[in-house]
Amino acid sequence: MHPSSISIIIPAHNSAATLAETLASLLKQTTLHWEAIIVDDGSVDETEAIAKQFAVQDSRIHVLSQPNQGVSAARNAGAQIAQAPWLLFLDSDDWVAPDYITLMTAKIESDSSLDVVHCGWVRVAPDGTLVGEKNSPNLPDLFPIVARYCPFAIHACVVKQTVFTQAGGFDTSLMTCEDWDLWQRIARQGARFGGIPEILAYYRMRPKSLSGDGTQFFKDGLRVLRQGCTPDPRITNPQPNYQAGLSADNLSNLEFYWASWPAGLVLGLGRDASPLLSLLHGPAPGLDPHCVAANLFESTPLPSCSHPAAWWQLWEVVCPLLQKFLNALEELSKASGLAQRVARILERMVLEQAIDAPWPLQVGKTYGVLLEITQPIVNIVPPEGFERLYGVVTMAGRRLGTIELPICDGVVSELVLKDSIADQYYWSILGYYYNQTIYRQQNLQESQDVADWQAHHNQVGWATFLQDLWDRPAWGEEAFYNAAYSDPAPTLKVESDQLTIEVSDFLSDVSTASDALTVLATVGGIAIGQFTIPTHKGCVSAQSLRATLTLEGGLELCRSVVREACIGQPIVPRMTLRQRLALAAKHRLHHQSALSIALSERFEELSHTLILRHRHQLSGSSGSRWATLPSQAAEAILTMAQATRETIAQQPNSPNSINRVMYAADSFIVDKPHDQLRPDLNSNRWNNSNQPPSVQTEFNNRDYFETLFATQPDPWKYTTNYEQVKYEQTLSLLPKHEIQRALELACAEGHFTEQLAPHVQSLIATDISQIAVERTAQRCSEFPHIQFRQLDMAADPLPDSLQLIVCSEVLYYIGGWENLRNFAKRVVNALEPGGYFLTAHAHLVVDEPDRTGYNWDHPFGAKGISDTFMAIGHFKLVNEIHTPLYRIQLFQKKKRSWLPWSQSSPSVVKLPQPTAPPEAAIHQVLWQGGTPQKTEAQSIVTDRLPILMYHRVAPEGAAAINRWRVTPEAFEAQLSYLRDAGYYTVPLETWQRAIITKNPLPGRAILLTFDDGYLDFLTYAYPLLQAYGFSATVFLVADHVGQSNQWDNIYGEDIPLMTWAQIRQLQAQGIEFGSHSASHRPLTSLTVEEIVKEGLRSRTILTQELGTPVQTIAYPYGDVDPVVQHLIGACGYTIGLSCRPGQSSFQDSLLSLPRIEVEGSNNLQEFVKKLSKN
Questions:
Q1: Which residue range is the domain that position 1147 belongs to?
Q2: Whether pLDDT at 41 is above 60
Q3: Which residues, listed in sequence order, are joined to residue 741 by a DSSP beta bridge?
Q4: Which residue stretches of 437-530 are H helix?
Q5: Which is it for strands 539-540 and 647-650: parallel, antiparallel or unpaired?
């Protein structure tokens, strides 16, 4: 048969209803290279007859009949008579796409090393609806995956027959999960997997087909899962690194995750799934609620063949049993707050999918509503018992997204609704509004293609907004920020030093006797902020007011305008934003307090409302948001306000009469206008004059090389023929006499080191990259006479008393001519008289534009390096091999006794190019010479900030929590790398400002955070931070300061926390502190009132003890969702840190910034790799 042909094994038992459709899909294949073997496994219906009928029609179809032995035995029987080199196992009720075999064989033929090829697959509901397309990781080694779960449907994969046979075929002792078990054994043998992205396999959903016996399904899966973490006696030739299976350290978690999948199947049948847990033996306190929720969400609808969009219909049926299972899961696993955390996630997932459901929807404790913003937005009063609001936001029927808000005292106010919508979607709303109005008037036809008008809006939207807001359609964007721009206006004389201006009114020049004018700005009659502006000759010009308000308001000004002019109102094409705002302002009574006006329209009982304002915070932070809090927390709110000295705008006479609590938004409050908050929507620039002195503009430092080796093993293709020939030529120039002590600079991964080692008595192999040094040490472990060191040849001292220094393909990166000359002098000092310097470098056209060379962006190449070493006067050239693309040279340090007439001429051998350059470098060669292309040096800036998350730095601790403990040695290595790579630490507030203004930070900024406040931070971490010039932010559990980590008592290690005296000592040394809550409970597991009290209590205690308001929080367990963000922001926090992995970008919510967890098991390579991931 054809070498890539496929035998399709089809086990069939009583499959008369579906077999014909399965076989029809094979007859539609676009290639002829296949055979099908139908194994009739003791059917008592028409299965065998249908199979034989197809076999008569097509000779590629064969039928094998046997007594009923089960699906695994049937597949094994079919495989034994298969003729093709590849096998596909296709169940008799599933089918494949017409181009399945064509595309799978194309992948096979493209890579002869593959043993298994897989594709995408999808479930198909009885009505033909496709449910949940799936694709598996395209990795050659899938054992780490299949040891944990089955990644694809059985017919989404073809396997070599020899590999299948070697693995022993299907295990007939398994009633279910037999395919998972097979792939696991195949992967453990070292099979190479390859994937293609196309969805080619279709899995028929049938009622109750998966869960006739949920317990058996769970038992079989548990057996396969555990087998993946232990030696498998069925495999005679496992890969050495998988002989013992996957590490069992995480097995308990994996068992609980697996339990949630069959639990969903049982729940989907309306049965109690908690008995499944009797097969587990917790605890598993580190369970991720998102993983549990994802499994339950996917598996629960399967028994009824439902689409996830129909989950809302299942909720009432499964909810009581679901909650019972989750409670049992939490009790057994000891995962803090797991049941409620999973329930909240599931509620959100159900509502996200309920596209065609009849809204409003009631799912658990979440109330779902539709919010059409061209219709009036009113207070929402859900039925009693709901804690969260999930709103789907639309504009003229187009979905913008969702908002999630807490339900406080049974209501969500329209002001909070509008403010939240504006906060998240103001730019899209403004763009859609302008697409219907101004853009159309600008001869841009109304576009139905969202991408078209959004692209146009992103280009001109900000200028258009300012022109529209200030009624200056002819002005350029810069004019709105220029206080000196000429714009005549009438004069308004005021007697006091205070003034209220409405942005929709025409501005006047203001005459006043005061030295400065305090201005309260309103938008549509709603106060949005306050600023103080100095007078000039008793006057403040209208343009100064406009420029200051534009500058200070920034994007928050735009949010406020959209909130008041667009949300809750129909689109009227001929009305400008300014006209809309003016109309809104007229509808509000003129009153001394714009705040009171704003609230009086929204709250019938204003006299019973506690109203507060946050202290000044940056525009665009949580202080700019309107929020309500539960009245039950009023006493705690007043206590915190007293500690933080926040303004109480209104306080009812009796605390007992408070029935509503509100924080009023302050978009900005500034005493002196400045120029740091102007929004830059597109900028990646930074004024070079603002860069700290240590900022680098070269990328060729340690950071460059560590990242290179961490992310690209063998980055320069050392094993190519080009490099190997060069190695051999380099070795041929070695001195003939014995070399006692040698140094290799830039050893990379040791490919040349292991060839050099036999020629010298003692060798020091070095590289700027510690990762490269470790790989060299591993490669050259059989040479006891080699020492391995991390060394920056441009900065670190070189070893002395050397007889040989080898340095190849690296001096281009040393940083310029002056550094090269200094390095040459240091080589002289490191060599003994008569010692040798052996080097190989490429010819670059920058040296000799009229000759062949590489067009690399370096200041010099081989000729420049050679000339520099000769020019210092201490070397003579002994031997040289010269090819068109490189030269290899042996220099000798002159001996003191040498006389000019005793020096011999060098031996120079010129050769034609012996090998072609590597494929990746061919296009960089200018064979006829040419003018080198110069690339402008780019200043390094940070627009994606790595925020590192640590817990402990300590030499020892309980093995169960080693993940959260970094040894002092590892921590020092990490700090050493960060220092050498040019990183510097910034405060969180600095990054907050960068996010709001969209302005990158200069240089390589980084932020180091430590959760919990362990005593070992003071003992081990802080001295190292101080030694390497870094700072950090430590997050404290307020109720446990000076005690121990009681929240982790399940792990059996009592770890002391710092006392307040120690914390204040560190604070005086520049360490910053933030909140890690009051009790360390996961916040999404708490009620609205409990969340607020956690945030308030922690902030109050920390503020009182530290003497300064605390505005940052790291959520316990990284546990955060939009409702938690809203409430925590209302408690006065402006920055929140999660455990979501990744670097922080300008697009992140300030109250949910991601972090990079540094685990105790991370070596330096893994550490560097984490830093380089976006």
A1: 941-1172
A2: yes
A3: 762
A4: 438-441, 450-470
A5: unpaired
Strands 1112-1114 and 1135-1141, sheet pairing: parallel
Least confident among 217-226, 565-574, 897-906: 897-906
**HEC profile of 221-261:** HHHHHHHCCCCCCCCCCCCHHHCCCCCHHHHHHHHHHHHHH
SS3 at position 611: strand
User: Could you tell me where the DSSP H helices lie in 479-573?
Assistant: 542-565
What does the pLDDT read at residue 1090?
A: 97
Phi, psi of 412 (to 5 degrees): -120, 115
For residues 1051 and 1087, membership in a common domain is answered with yes
Integer angstrom CA distances of residue 803 from 69, 70, 736, 740: 76, 74, 13, 7
Q: Which two tokens stand for residue 791?
A: 């060394």
293 by Cβ neighbours in 10 Å (0-12 / 13-18 / 19+) ranks as buried
**776 domain residue, yes or no:** yes
pLDDT at 672: 42
Q: Cα separation of 864 and 852, whole Å? A: 15
765 contacts 787 by C-beta, under 8 angstroms: yes
Vertex 291, ends 198 and 118: CA angle to 5°? 20
Residues 665 and 752 in one domain: no
- Give the DSSP letter string of 71-86: HHHHHHHHHHT--SSE
- Tell me the C-alpha distance between 875 and 865, whole Å: 13
Is there a cis peptide before residue 283, judged by omega within 30 degrees of 0?
yes
Q: Which two tokens stand for residue 942?
A: 């940070």
Q: How far apart are the first and last CA of the chain?
A: 47
Bridge-based pairing state of the strands 498-502 and 516-523: parallel
Contact status, residue 639 vs residue 1100, Cβ threshold 8 Å: yes
At residue 523, the 3 state secondary structure works out as strand
Do 205 and 269 belong to one domain?
A: no
| Statement: residue 899 has pLDDT above 60 | no
Single-letter residue type at 739: I
CB 428 within 8 A of CB 400: yes
CA 916 to chain CA centroid, Å, is: 40
For 128, other C-beta atoms within 10 Å of its C-beta total 6
| CB contact at 8 A, 335 and 530 | no
Q: Is residue 10 part of a domain?
A: yes
- What is the per-residue pLDDT across 131-162, written as a single tens digit (0 to 9) for each? 989 998 899 999 999 999 999 999 999 999 99
> What pLDDT is attached to residue 1120?
96
Edge-to-edge strand list for the sheet holding 660-664: 627-629, 660-664, 609-613, 647-650
Boundary-marking domain end, from 245, 276, 293: 245
Confidence of residue 594 (pLDDT cuts 50, 70, 90): very low
Question: What is the spatial distance between Cα 484 and Cα 547, in angstroms, rounded to a whole number?
Answer: 9
Kindly state whether residue 341 falls inside one of the protein's structural domains. yes
Which CATH number goes with the domain that contains 1093?
3.20.20.370
User: Residue 268 is which amino acid?
Assistant: G
Contact of 300 with 314, CB cutoff 8 Å: yes
pTM for this predicted structure = 0.84
In whole angstroms, give the CA distance from residue 298 to residue 296.
Answer: 6
Using H for helix, E for strand and C for coil, what is the string for 1035-1078? EECHHHCCCECHHHHHHCCCCEECCHHHHHHHHHCCCEEEECCC
Tokens 């009581």 correspond to: 320
CATH number for the domain that contains residue 90 = 3.90.550.10
Give DSSP secondary structure letters for 786-816. EEEEE--TTTSPPPSSEEEEEEES-GGGG-S
Please check whether residues 652 and 758 belong to one and the same domain. Answer: no
Would you call 912 exposed, middle or buried from its count of C-beta atoms within 10 A (0-12, 13-18, 19+)?
exposed
Tally of domains in the chain: 5
Q: What angle do CA 100, 104, 110 make, to 5 degrees?
A: 150
Same domain? For 208 and 255 the reply is no
The dihedral over CA atoms of 222, 226, 232, 237, expressed in degrees to the nearest 10, equals 110
